Amino acid sequence: SIIKYGPLLLDKPDIIHIQWAKEIEDWIWLKTFDIKIVLSLRGTHINTSPLSDEDLSKTYIKYFPDIATFHCVSDAIMEIAKKYCLQSINALTIYSGVDLNRIKNLKLKCVDNNNLKILSVGRDHWKKGYNYSILAVSLLKKEGIDFQYEIIAKESEENQFLIDQLELKNQVMFKGNLNYDDVLRKMGSSDILILPSVEEGIANVVLEAMAIGLPVISTNCGGMSEVIKNGENGFLIDCRNPIQIFNAIKVYMTLTESEKS
């Protein structure tokens, strides 16, 4: 449309940045006017979408060679994109940043050590793996460990059913969507963050938790091993493995305060 594309034809910028890979076909024609295209590769659009959409996969293979430069949020994503004709010479990994000043200015509550407070953050989608973390905390209940597991997301019917079946309604709660500062405050008043995902680029929530000083248990998916070094700055576990999540929580509980920090 004229409203969408007109300003670009009038101004003819040297470079245009495309944030979402699925939109590549809408903008690739700009190279005809010697406008260079920078494309970001962040997560789902490259990790999972082309697997279930053959036409999208063919689109990437067709047009990726015409992209001037790729921005990848992890080395792992760069490797995946090579299947669609990305060339390393045209790609750069730039990790997501965290606003440290914003975190510093928040008033964070002290953790209540009498009750283990576990947190996860992110939409309730299959790739986030919440069914595995819910199964993991059910093992805590079986051992008589007092805990509260809050998930900052809207609850799916599947996980609602799982929580009911495991009789965890008093321990596991989906809190819906919160604004960014409230999410950071939740991190500041929690004991540990779990990222049980089966797919990620690099999860911003883990970077934010680490900046706050909240210990992290993360699955080894996507680029998470580029951030978490197991046993050094967090726990790195296999995907789809509730037992490993449970064991990592148990190890965390044995750490001294200095070891947790």
Question: What is the topological layout?
Answer:
Elements: H1 2-11, E1 15-18, H2 24-27, E2 36-41, H3 44-47, H4 49-52, H5 54-63, E3 69-72, H6 75-81, E4 91-93, H7 100-105, E5 116-121, H8 130-142, E6 147-152, H9 157-165, E7 172-174, H10 180-188, E8 192-195, H11 204-212, E9 216-219, E10 235-237, H12 242-254, H13 257-260
Parallel strand pairs: 1-2, 2-3, 3-4, 5-6, 5-8, 6-7, 8-9, 9-10
Helix pairs in contact: 8-9, 8-12
Instruction: Summarize the main sheet.
Output: 6 strands, parallel
Strand order of the largest sheet: 7-6-5-8-9-10
The 3D shape can be described as: elongated
Number of helices: 13
SSE sequence, one letter per element:
HEHEHHHEHEHEHEHEHEHEEHH
Uncertain residue ranges: none
Structural class: alpha/beta
| Number of separate strands | 10
The radius of gyration over CA amounts to 21 Å
**What is the first-to-last residue Cα distance?**
54 Å
Approximate strand percentage: 15-25%
Rounded mean pLDDT is 92
Q: Please estimate the helix content.
A: 25-40%
Structure in words:
The protein has 13 helices and ten strands. The protein has helices spanning 2-11, 24-27, 44-47, 49-52, 54-63, 75-81, 100-105, 130-142, 157-165, 180-188, 204-212, 242-254, 257-260; strands at residues 15-18, 36-41, 69-72, 91-93, 116-121, 147-152, 172-174, 192-195, 216-219, 235-237. Strand 8, helix 11 and strand 9 (216-219) form a beta-alpha-beta unit. It is elongated. With 261 residues, the chain is α/β, with parallel strands linked by helices.
